[in-house]
Amino acid sequence: MPSRLEEIKSFIAMSPEDPFPRYGLAMEYKKLGLHEEALKAFSELSVSHPEYVAQYLLHGNLLVELRRRAEARGVFERGIEAARKARNQHAQGELQAALEGLDEEE
């Protein structure tokens, strides 16, 4: 029986242009505590699919969790711009709140 990681990687191979399995891979790495692998997967996703709004909040939150606040700020800011372009006000609001939360903690 293939592992969940293997299954997700096979979905990526079958649909290389679909951002969702790549997002799932990043989330699975995070869930397994493989933070560097998760960050690499999120970074690759942001390069290949910068318009995929869902990635930004979780990517930024992982960076906050790892105390990499400056990087998180950049991810949240890019996410706000992607959400604005997509006219996704809900995501834009969540990302803005996360960014403001960084400012409050400083």
What attributes does this structure have?
about 110 residues, mainly alpha, 6 helices, about 0% strand, globular
Q: What do these coordinates show?
A:
With 106 residues, this protein is an all-alpha fold. The protein contains six helices and no strands. It has helices at residues 4-14, 19-31, 35-48, 54-65, 69-86, 89-105. Helix 3 runs antiparallel to helix 4 (54-65) and helix 4 (54-65) packs antiparallel against helix 5 (69-86). The chain is globular and about 45 Å long. The termini are far apart. 26% of the residues are buried.
Mean pLDDT: 95
Elements, N to C (H/E): HHHHHH
- Stretches with pLDDT under 50, minimum 5 residues: none
The percentage of residues in β strands lies in under 5%
Supply the number of helical segments: 6
Using only C-alpha atoms, the radius of gyration works out to: 14 Å
Fraction in helix = over 70%
Distance between the termini: 47 Å
Largest β-sheet summary: none
Give the overall shape: globular
Tell me briefly what this model is.
With 106 residues, this protein is an all-alpha fold. Helix content is 80%, strand content 0%.
List the helices and strands and how they pair.
Layout: H1 4-14, H2 19-31, H3 35-48, H4 54-65, H5 69-86, H6 89-105
Helix pairs in contact: 1-2, 2-3, 3-4, 4-5, 4-6, 5-6
